[in-house]
Amino acid sequence: MTKTEQQLRDALTAVADLVQPREQSQRASEHPKRRHSPWLGPVCVAAAIVLIVTVGSAVSQRLPGERPTSGSATTAAAMQPVAPTGPARFFAVLQMTVVKVYNAKTGAPTQTVPNPPDVNVWTTVSATRDDRLFLLSGYIGIGASSNNLNDNPRLYWLRLDASGKMSSLIRVSGFHSTQHLLAMAVSPDGTRVAYALPIVVKPDSNGDSQSGIAVLNLATRHTQTFPSDGDIRNLSWANDGRHLAFFAGGAHGHDGIWTLDTQARPSKNLYAASRLVIRWEAGPLGTLTTPVLSADGSKIYAIATQTELPTGGPNWTRLIEIDAATGRQLRVLYQQKYTGVGADNNAIWQFTRLARDTGSERLLIISTGYAYRIDIKTTHTARTPIGPTANDLAW
């Protein structure tokens, strides 16, 4: 019996004595009769109920996949989806070896998160619909190197308090991968995590590679795998937690932006369970990267390098809105012009990282040492200095 269970039993036993006293071995006439207040029993019952609810709530709030503490057990009640909390109040930025948190309204930094002992390089970060809960992936680099492919990655839940400072940093159990993660996205409700499988060169295939997407259920530890060729990057969920956008490169005719139905019947091929939205290169929208699904999955936001045709003039990096059904460009939400040497007819990326707030109509990008917060409806933009080494972000 756990300590919590014993405390609950003791509390209920005490209440039972007040409501219906135990039989005494002595005769009632041998002792003066004690009278209990008529309201004492109900009050104690109420107190016990509050205790049970409070303790039960604390247990049920354990995060999906969280390693249980010593002496406790992971139960079905501990694997509840996280509740939506509205627009993001904070965003997290990875700067290779550290995680920094910022206030989403003011842009002011709130904390540099202390690293756990088994991670000194962070590769990806993803946000849930709880605006204070993020999922991180990282590993141990060799010395100052960040290319230690032999070290297995770890997943960590980062929980913030109301001021944007770390409340807890808890490692996720039941996750295994042979290489560190270059693409990872947690579902908005926090119950599943999608990640790109390591690229493996096929034997006797003239250098052809295979990879794919895995979707891990953090409660059941079941992994659904969608194998493919090529390099899979930039995973993004719709708010329904079913549809997932991804980018495929070097995939023998499959290069482009796709959407995967993660509830599709098991398939031997990722592309058989997915739908092509648009080719990523040499199309009318320019060269594309970093697809992010809209809340309802009807639109895709992507970063594009575009030149002013037909003259092949200045090179622009643009954040564009694409119709997910037709692949047609709908709007330009934000853009930056490259004016340096070699701009004409070359893809010069001014920014490459993009994230959507699951609780509002806002996007976040990284460019030249700044994070830009962009309102999808109005395209109003505000920027925050974050330093030049940011490699991922989420809110």
What does this structure look like?
With 395 residues, the protein is mainly beta. The protein has two helices and 25 strands. It has helices spanning 3-19, 40-60; strands at residues 90-94, 99-103, 109-113, 121-127, 133-139, 154-160, 166-171, 184-186, 192-196, 200-201, 209-217, 223-229, 231-237, 243-249, 256-261, 274-278, 287-293, 299-307, 315-323, 329-338, 351-356, 362-367, 370-375, 381-385, 392-394. The strands form six sheets. Strands 8, 9, 10, 11 and 12 form a five-stranded antiparallel beta sheet that branches. It has a four-stranded antiparallel beta sheet with strand order 3-2-1-25, with no helix packed on it. Strand 6 and strand 7 (166-171) form a beta hairpin. Helix 1 runs antiparallel to helix 2 (40-60). It is globular and about 45 Å long. The relative contact order is 0.10. Residues 1-61 and 68-78 have low confidence and may be disordered.
Summed up, what is this model?
It is built from two helices and 25 strands.
Features:
single chain, 395 residues, mainly beta, 5-stranded antiparallel β-sheet, 4-stranded antiparallel β-sheet, 2 helices, 25 strands, disordered N terminus
What structural class do you assign from the helix and strand content?
mainly beta
Percent strand equals 35-45%
In one word, what is the shape?
globular
Radius of gyration: 26 Å
Q: How far apart are the first and last residues' alpha carbons, in Å? A: 41 Å
Order of helices and strands: HHEEEEEEEEEEEEEEEEEEEEEEEEE
Please give the count of helices. 2
Assign a percent range to the helix content.
under 10%
The profile of the biggest β sheet is: 5 strands, antiparallel
The number of strands is 25
What oligomeric state do the depicted chains represent? single chain
Mean pLDDT value: 77
As residue ranges, the low-confidence spans are: 1-61, 68-78
